[in-house]
Amino acid sequence: MNNIMFFYKADKLKLAKIFVILNLIFFSSALSLKAQNAIGTNAIGTNAIGTNATGTNSIGTNATDSTTNSTQQSNTNATTKAQNDLKKQTRKSTGKVYSEDQQFKGALRKETALALAVAKARYVAMDDAARSLVLRPDVQAFANSTKNTAPLDPFALAYAVYTTEILPPELAGFSPELSVRAGVGIVPRYSAPNQNAVDFSVTTVLNNPELLFFTADSIKKENSLLKELISLSDAEIKNPTQANKKLEMTVRFKKLTDALSALELFREVLPNLQPTTWSNPEQVVETMKKAIQFDQDNPLILGTLGEALLVEGKSQDAIDYLSSAIKLDKTKARMFHMRGVAYMSLHLPALAIEDFSSALELNPNSPTYYNARGAAYLFQADYKNMCKDFYSACTFDSCQNYQWGIAQGYCKK
């Protein structure tokens, strides 16, 4: 559903046979990433890929040393079938396998240690990928183009371009100093016949900046989880929890690793995000409902579920989930906008105007939001405010609705 049509009956608004086609409702690629502070603050050319640029040390992992160690470990274990198979899969991308060890004892169980080791290995792999991606001419051209309204975060780009393949885990050491080893390789998220998968993935992401917006938000959340998980794990290894509090700490560890699993499910559906809609909304809904079972308090997941339900035409359900997301995070203009769209679909323009106004307060540079609020004013026959908003949208080169208003005699040139 790329466009929304509003039809107005003559006996209600005295607008017989008039309809306004608004190319504004769903997921416009014209959203200002800068205004939403969606993408990171490190710009290419200003140490974006320099030492510690992607925040690797912030989670307790040294990218350069870990990458070197990972390569050495993969060479040492290259005889194992799983690693050889993974190398074949990843040869077209980085050709590397990244490994991380994590000790476990006490309340820090093997399953939790494995989840942490995988997350750290993935982090190191993406850091390495980011350092390569930033050297590509097409990435540098995008970073310096007028299409890019915010500094390009290479780490978000890496997570958007690549996904990870995970090796079977290995145990290392001897009791009580047991560790679990996780290995990952990275492969492009997107592919097309007769095209280089990495090139195609980079092009796909750069042509849809909202992929970077969503990915950057997921990374921010993941970094926070990893910091807490690493801190707790280090403390548990040094001083295991007493028996009477072991269950409580185990539950705490599980909650953190569940939240990481939810983020991975979230990133799985991002290839369905198109510039103007979600493809395969049924799949998005199904996957996000699984993610919510792991983490009920992630506004990214709740909001995405709400958007997918809206695409399916389930407006009230969409409002419920979007409202839950907004309650947790009131800084995302997109969420207010999408809830406003849902209200409009239920013929509730006053509530829609309130949400569109909130979206514009957060992002005053979006023609999509002005057009949406203008449509809500049109529904109320408030032509004065309608024309103001359609004119504002036109100042951002979205003039279709303003020109329609002039043609109908509602707006002045």
Automatic annotation (TrEMBL):
Source superkingdom: Bacteria
Region called Disordered, residue ranges: 56-97
SMART domains, per database record: TPR (SM00028)
TPR repeat start-end pairs: 333-366
Signal peptide as annotated in the record: 1-35
Keywords for this protein: Repeat, Signal, TPR repeat
Pfam families (alphabetical): TPR_8
Matching InterPro entries: TPR-like_helical_dom_sf, TPR_rpt, Ycf3
Low complexity biased stretches: 56-83
PANTHER family xrefs: TETRATRICOPEPTIDE REPEAT PROTEIN 6 (PTHR44858), UDP-N-ACETYLGLUCOSAMINE--PEPTIDE N-ACETYLGLUCOSAMINYLTRANSFERASE SPINDLY-RELATED (PTHR44858:SF1)
Protein name: TPR repeat-containing protein
Upper lineage: Bacteria, Pseudomonadati, Thermodesulfobacteriota, Desulfovibrionia, Desulfovibrionales
